[in-house]
Amino acid sequence: MKITIPIEGMHCRSCEITLGQHLEKVARVTSASVSLKTKSATLEVISPPNQADLHKAVQAAGYTIGDTKQPWLSHNPTDYRDLCIGILVIAILALLYNVLGVNKIISTGSITSGGIGVALLTGLAAGLSTCMALVGGLVLSLSARHAKKHPNATAMQKFRPHIFFNLSRIISFFILGGLIGVLGASIQLQGAPLGILMIIVGVVMFGLGLQLTSIMPRVSSGGLTLPPAIAKFLGLKKHTEKEYNHKSAVALGAISFFLPCGFTQVMQLYAISTGSFVTGAIVMGVFAIGTAPGLLGIGSLTSLVKSKASGRFFKIAGVAVMTMALLNISSGYNLSGFQIPSFARASDTSATSAPGQTLETTYTLAKDIVPASFTLKSQTSYKLVVDSQDDGQGCMSTIMIPGLFETPLLLEKGKKQVLSFRTNAPGTYKITCAMGINRGTITVV
Asked: Which of 71, 72, 240, 406 is in Cβ range 3.0-4.6 Å of 191 for a Cys bridge?
């Protein structure tokens, strides 16, 4: 005879295998077929099994019997307490980041003259700052989600994909660095396409982070589950191995070359300027080696966390991922050039310019660019001249105007950068770095 029981808490294909094995150990059960789609288990039994034994088997696998729908918002006070703890931890880390000035460890001026050694130091700085915000945030969101789904995996099984990711990243940076050294900016993403990519990545990261916090049970239990085809590509193995196929980590490592970490973009510009395959390859490859300690470090967090502390850790990781996601969505919007109403900077830094006028602004580390806002007329050509009194720093070492001037230019001490553009349509345009961080506004009327 067959009986069917509803199951709560399943979220992936490996849940079916794990739960099925536990149920088949129950007396009088000859076989068990578990369905993630129907959230149920169908049992072939010799005679009706003991209900208490069924409950114990399901609970031992980490699930519960029942068909009550999950609420949109959690009713568990502990979830909200842990969420507040996560917000506090991230706020403290952000404060320390700013106080210690991690984003000012290395300057762009030395990159253009310091060679390979500086590429390594720049990579070390990037691995602890802007690359951590996007590349590290994406790695953390995926690895934490995977570790949460597979709590019984060993530390090495959880960590091994990060080794493959970083090896692939280093090799890809060598190859692609050489190609951009020869072919130039033709294989770089920039402007609106890059902004749209950042927004898409940010939305995915935010969804994954929201799942990790557990404050929306219905999202956590059934939100961003992987379609079978994608799960197969990622190589979701049988329950005894509990890890993704290494080819997914290799693919993500290669794709990370195109993700807009500010330091990465600066090094790409330098590689382009060399005009050499060998030099471009060495610069980008050594830079990737420099980022490896930071990215391996964030990957190891999900590998080393113990089961007792995993609940709170995943919530803190979720808050971190959501914060990074919002930063990337904001930067992606700035790069996209979308014309959505926004507020310009304070009027004390604004300047109204006559048609065809050459605009002038001065860049310093202390104040960035001054003046930072301009009001221009539509259908008119202008030149923005940036007089650099200092070398640019980190992700703020470049300047561009998405929608008006799409090519990022390096800021170097003693050098004037000229951004020539035409105001074809009214709107508000952000003056940004190549990563989309806002540094000024141009209002076209």
From this structure: 406
Instruction: Measure Cα distances from 296 to 2, 26, 44, 124 in Å.
Output: 49, 42, 46, 12
Q: Cα–Cα distances in Å, from 310 out to 50, 303, 325?
A: 33, 10, 22
Three-class SS state of 359: strand
Q: Are 382 and 351 in contact (CB under 8 A)?
A: no
- How far from 395 is each of 38, 129, 429, CA to CA, in Å? 48, 9, 19
pLDDT in tens, the chain (445 residues): 888 888 876 766 667 888 888 899 899 899 998 887 777 889 998 888 888 888 888 888 877 787 556 677 877 787 788 888 888 888 887 787 667 655 554 444 445 445 566 678 777 767 766 566 567 666 666 666 666 566 666 677 777 777 888 899 999 999 999 998 888 756 665 667 777 877 877 787 787 678 778 787 766 655 444 444 444 444 444 333 333 456 777 887 888 887 766 677 777 877 877 778 988 899 899 989 988 888 887 767 666 655 555 567 767 777 877 887 787 788 888 888 776 544 444 344 455 555 668 899 999 988 889 999 999 999 999 999 999 998 777 667 889 999 899 888 888 888 999 999 999 889 899 999 877 888 999 999 8
Give the position of tokens 């770089």.
Answer: 188
SS3 320: helix
Give me 228's structure tokens: 């079978």
Q: In this structure, are strands 350-352 and 380-388 parallel, antiparallel, or unpaired?
A: unpaired
> Three-state SS for 229?
helix
Distance CA 264, CA 254 (A): 13
Residue extents of the structural domains in the chain: 2-65, 77-336, 347-444
CA distance 366 to 11: 50
Half-sphere exposure of 241 (CA within 13 A, CB side): 10
Residue 186: partners with Cβ closer than 8 Å, 6 or more residues away: none
How many Å apart are CA 397 and CA 395, to the nearest integer? 6
Q: Which CATH homologous superfamily contains domain 347-444?
A: Cupredoxins -  blue copper proteins (2.60.40.420)
The CATH classification number of 2-65 equals 3.30.70.100
CB 134, CB 295: distance < 8 Å? no
Beta sheet of 358-364, edge-to-edge order? 368-370, 358-364, 380-388, 416-423
